[in-house]
Design brief:
The complex is a heterodimer of chains A (about 300) and B (about 550). Chain A is mostly helical and about 300 residues long. In chain A, about 75% of the residues lie in helices and about 5% in strands. Chain B has three domains: about 140 residues, P-loop containing nucleotide triphosphate hydrolases (Rossmann fold); about 70 residues, no CATH class; about 190 residues, 3-Layer(aba) Sandwich (Rossmann fold). Chain B is globular, with a radius of gyration of 24 Å. Classes of the chains: A mainly alpha (about 300), B alpha/beta (about 550). The interface between A and B is medium-sized, with 22 and 30 residues.
């Protein structure tokens, strides 16, 4: 259903503005989407399993800063990137442990973690940002292959892999059962605690990757990076068909949700609509998507 | 003081005052040619005509899908009939919503509890009708609790009115639900499966209260699958089948067999079947198992567990019935044997090999299955489809070495299950929450058959299931046993236990107190063992000791 909306929106926009369907514009939209899409993979899995993660934006920013920090201290690129990724996975692991073992509500746990991580970043980067990153790193965010930027390629590969795994893999399929009915999932032999911890760690890792790619793209790590990313991602995932109750959603749907939001953002730019309106329109889109979905379910 | 004296004047709405002057021959409530159809869904009720007399207990019987709930909802104001009339004391009325029905004097106790677990018993019973005092209309807690205590005494429940509802076992919660409806002193009380979670003790008290209220001209509509109870308490019975009215008959004029035949439309002989194959070698053994009672199960307060534990053995192809009162610890034992809860002590042997089952996943690997008694909250994935539910515990067997699922094989198994278990559904992807209770139970059973079990523990396999589906489930259990599966049957339905089991073991307060081979098992000696009564028991159990009643 989302595909139809996107096509219709695309058709309208290409009519309104001759620039819309150019390669440049499409690439720009995909680029905008790519970091969110990477995080959306993890967030989709979480929502399907009945979970929630508000800390992804902070984790992405912190991972980017850690990698940047390593780089300016002459650490080899591969190790620096690894450090950032491992940090993200660690944050996710801690989230998962608290949620699965201590059984604190995911909303509260990740809300707290969001502030803790962002705060840690602020403490570490008192002077604001890290710049001067070597080209051997920034090519990841800034160069192209066959006219397509690297972030888009990374995102495309991961989205395809994520969608395949969530659809076909037995391990990932368990998330639908967990989100459908946790007690029944336990009695059906699903190792629920381990699954939850894995999901959060994976999401942390993906958030870190997005943060590292974004740092490569901008060539610097800042304190305010990726602020608000969590809400964008959750919006995209819900527009894409996931439900807060759990048991529903696909990675492809979430990607299309991100794409739709990027469509709307780019369209508004091209139409000359002020940036202040964008938040309003995004919020309205979210409510509209959920409304249509809910009414459709009630009738069916 | 009569606790039922606290209530608003009857008949605020309509033309019946507190002292109604209609003659006692006019039926209190009449459904005349009621028709209700739901487009796109199979539920419908066609041309139902039935009357309810003053001071009568009128049972409504029929299979799931026969239209009992629909009719009940129409009389309670939840639905509006498409055609036909409802007559109240001979006058046509419209029950536009449940509030109006309640004001006229129709009370309902639904099967699904409508209580708030986070509030106290008193607040639940008198929800929005608390006695008030003072000019600020503050809640008069003293009077509230006093009135609640008087009501609780009707059911011999020694519960603190301030106790949080969620802390009570389900049996007591259901009793509170009934008291809530009784406290409004309705002229007509509709009871939908009121005893599904009650023990025989509370059921007896419920019936005593019903008989007492009949004398003050309260009428009852009693919906139940337990035909024995229906015959015990009802004056007349109306049979519905496939939404159609079949017949209204008086209790004395029909046998249970004939009633079942009218409900089902076909002969149902010997529902429980017989064992057809000889018993095999022992496949499962438990020695001194004591389930941990540290956490309350399903919101109930833990009973005092004594030492001793449970020991019994199970042979291939054998059905062992595990009987006992609610709170005896049967479900806890079943879950502990399955690895869903830790065993305080004791040993479990599968095919004479000691196993330590620390999780359901391990149990499933050892081909031990457990079908929960609480299919909606703990067994099924209500929003997922029939196929998805059928394969839930056996996902591993449908995935290849790379961990990818073989959808084709999965669907094929689901389709075979649908055919074999005769699951009625619109398609393999229909959400299981939309199926009837009997079909839901069949899906759950199918999912456990899917793991290829050697031992299967089934807990209340026919709770809330109609007669037709029940006989199908019994046939399936017999089929499994004939194939060599050892079955442990946990059930509160004594007829079921007696009909299916090769042996009956009885639990009380966490330990095994009696074991009877099939030939020696009778309802009387099982109840006696379950309730801990010693001495002669002529017909039914005597008064059980206090620790059993006030759980």
């Amino acid at each position: 259903m989302i595909i139809m909306v996107i096509l219709v929106a695309g058709a309208i926009m290409s009519y309104e503005s001759p620039v819309f369907l150019t390669q440049g514009n499409i690439m720009a939209m995909l680029l905008r989407v790519s970091c969110e899409a990477i995080v959306a993979i993890g967030m989709t899995i979480l929502l399907v399993s009945g979970g929630f993660d508000l800390s992804v934006g902070s984790t992405a920013a912190l991972a980017g800063a850690v990698t940047a920090g390593c780089l300016v201290h002459e650490v080899p690129v591969a190790l620096a990137v690894l450090a950032g990724l491992l940090l993200g996975a660690l944050v996710g692991l801690i989230n998962g442990l608290i949620i699965a073992k201590v059984k604190i509500n995911p909303f509260i746990t990740t809300l707290g973690m969001m502030s803790i991580v962002r705060g840690a970043l602020q403490v570490a980067l008192e002077n604001g940002n890290i710049t001067g990153l070597p080209g051997s790193f920034t090519w990841m965010g800034q160069s192209c292959v066959l006219g397509v930027q690297w972030p888009i390629i990374i995102a495309a590969v991961l989205v395809a892999a994520g969608d395949l795994l969530l659809r076909k893999s037995r391990f990932f399929r368990q998330n639908y059962y967990l989100g459908g009915n946790e007690k029944a999932a336990i009695l059906s032999g699903i190792a629920v605690d381990r699954l939850k911890i894995f999901n959060y760690a994976l999401t942390g890792l993906l958030a870190a990757l997005a943060g590292v790619v974004m740092t490569a793209r901008f060539g610097s790590a800042t304190v305010g990076a990726n602020t608000g990313m969590e809400l964008q991602v959750i919006t995209a995932v819900i527009i894409g068909g996931a439900s807060l109750q759990g048991g529903e959603g696909t990675v492809l749907g979430s990607f299309l949700g991100s794409l739709l939001m990027a469509f709307i953002g780019c369209s508004m730019n091209l139409l000359g609509v002020g940036p202040n309106w964008q938040l309003l329109v995004i919020g309205a889109t979210l409510l509209l998507a959920v409304l249509i979905d809910t009414l459709g379910k009630r009738r069916g | 003081m009569n606790p039922l004296a606290y209530r608003p004047a009857r008949g605020k709405l309509g033309n019946v005052a507190a002292t109604d002057t209609t003659d006692s021959d006019t039926p209190v409530l009449e459904a005349r040619d009621i028709v209700k159809t739901f487009p796109g869904v199979s539920l419908s009720v066609v041309s139902v005509a039935a009357t309810l007399r003053r001071g009568e207990v009128h049972a409504l019987v029929g299979e799931n899908g026969a239209g009992k709930s629909t009719l009940m909802n129409i009389l309670a104001g939840v639905y509006q009939p498409d055609e036909g009339q409802i007559l109240w004391h001979g006058q046509p009325v419209v029950m536009a919503n449940p509030q109006q029905a309640r004001e006229r004097g129709v009370g309902v106790v639904f099967q699904e509890l409508s209580l708030a677990p986070n509030l106290s018993v008193a607040e639940n019973i008198f929800a929005n009708r608390q006695p008030l005092r003072g000019c600020l209309d503050l809640i008069d807690w003293a009077r509230l609790h006093e009135q609640t205590r008087d009501l609780l005494a009707l059911f011999d429940l020694r519960i603190d009115p301030a106790e949080l509802l969620g802390n009570l076992p389900v049996a007591q919660q259901q009793a509170v639900e009934i008291l809530k409806a009784l406290s409004t002193n309705p002229q007509v009380l509709i009871l939908d499966e009121p005893t599904s979670s009650l023990t025989s003790v509370e059921t007896r008290l419920l019936f005593e209260n019903i008989r007492r209220l009949k004398k003050s001209a309260t009428s009852f509509i009693y919906i139940s699958h337990h035909l024995q109870e229906v015959f015990e308490i009802a004056d007349r019975m109306t049979v519905l089948r496939d939404g159609q009215f079949v017949e209204t008959c008086t209790a004395g004029s029909i046998t249970e067999e004939d009633l079942v035949r009218k409900m089902v439309g076909r002969e149902l002989r010997n529902v429980y079947g017989q064992r057809t194959t000889p018993l095999g070698p022992p496949c499962f053994r438990v020695e001194n198992a004591v389930p941990r009672a540290s956490r309350p199960h399903a919101g109930g307060t833990p009973a005092v567990r004594r030492f001793g534990g449970v020991s019994f053995a199970l042979r291939e192809g054998e059905i062992v019935g595990l009987a006992g009162l609610v709170g005896a610890g049967r479900t806890e034992l079943g879950r502990a044997l399955f690895g869903a809860e830790p065993l305080e002590s004791g040993a479990v042997f599968i095919a004479e090999e000691r196993v330590r089952l620390r999780s359901p996943a391990e149990a499933i690997r050892h081909r031990l299955g457990y079908q929960t008694e609480d299919r909606k909250q703990q067994g099924l994935f209500l929003r997922l489809g029939v196929a998805a539910n059928c394969v839930a515990p056996s996902l591993r067997s449908f995935s290849n070495r790379l961990g990818l699922l073989h959808e084709g094989g999965l669907r094929e198994f689901a389709e075979r299950s649908r055919a074999r278990f005769r699951i009625v559904c619109s398609g393999l992807d229909q959400p299981v929450g939309n199926l009837s209770g009997g079909n839901q139970q069949k899906v759950l059973l199918a999912s456990w058959v899917g793991i290829g079990p050697k031992v299967l523990i089934v807990d209340e396999p026919t709770r809330g299931v109609d007669v037709g589906a029940r006989s199908e489930i019994y046939a399936l259990l017999r089929e499994l046993a004939a194939g060599g599966v050892g079955i442990i049957l946990i059930s509160s339905d004594l007829q079921e236990i007696l009909g299916l089991s090769d042996r009956v073991v009885v639990m009380r307060n966490g330990e095994l107190v009696a074991e009877f081979p099939r030939e020696q098992a009778t309802e009387e000696n099982i109840i006696a063992a379950a309730a801990g009564v010693t001495g002669d028991v002529p017909g039914s159990a005597g008064v059980p000791p206090a620790d059993v009643v006030a759980r």
